[in-house]
Amino acid sequence: MESVEKECGALGGLFQAIVNDMKSSYPVWEDFSAKATKLHSQLRTTILAAVAFLDAFQKVADMATSSRGEHMPIRVMGHTFGIMNVYTN
């Protein structure tokens, strides 16, 4: 009977140690979770911006391709640039 009490005492001590470790590590996990959420949000924003940029760039490329060698002025942030299509049909 004494060995059962020793085993129960050991298991109780182990359980208590695990609970105490979890209590002390909670702020670390909470911080990790918050930082992971912020990283996810920033990556999503970056990807959406990159997709929008590539869509706009594709429109410029499509416009240049359809120009058939004509000089096409492009305005970017108040400056005018010329695009010459070297591929003529």
Order of helices and strands: HEE
Average pLDDT over all residues: 80
Number of helices: 1
- The assigned structural class equals alpha+beta
CA-atom Rg in angstroms: 32 Å
The best one-word shape is: rod-shaped
* Strand line-up across the major sheet: 1-2
Report the portion of residues in β strands.
5-15%
**Could you give the count of β-strands?**
2
Question: How can the largest sheet be summarized?
Answer: 2 strands, antiparallel
First-residue to last-residue Cα separation = 96 Å
The helicity comes to over 70%
- Uncertain regions spanning at least 5 consecutive residues: 84-89
Walk me through the structure.
It is built from 1 helix and 2 strands; from the N terminus they run H-E-E. It has one helix at 2-65; strands at 71-76, 79-84. The protein has 89 residues and is an alpha+beta fold. A two-stranded antiparallel sheet has the order 1-2. It starts with a helix and ends in a 5-residue tail after the last strand. The chain is rod-shaped and about 95 Å long. A hairpin with a 2-residue loop joins strand 1 (71-76) and strand 2 (79-84).
In a few lines, what is going on in this structure?
The chain has 1 helix and 2 strands, in the order H-E-E.
List keywords for this structure.
1 helix; 89 residues; two-stranded antiparallel ribbon; disordered C terminus; alpha+beta
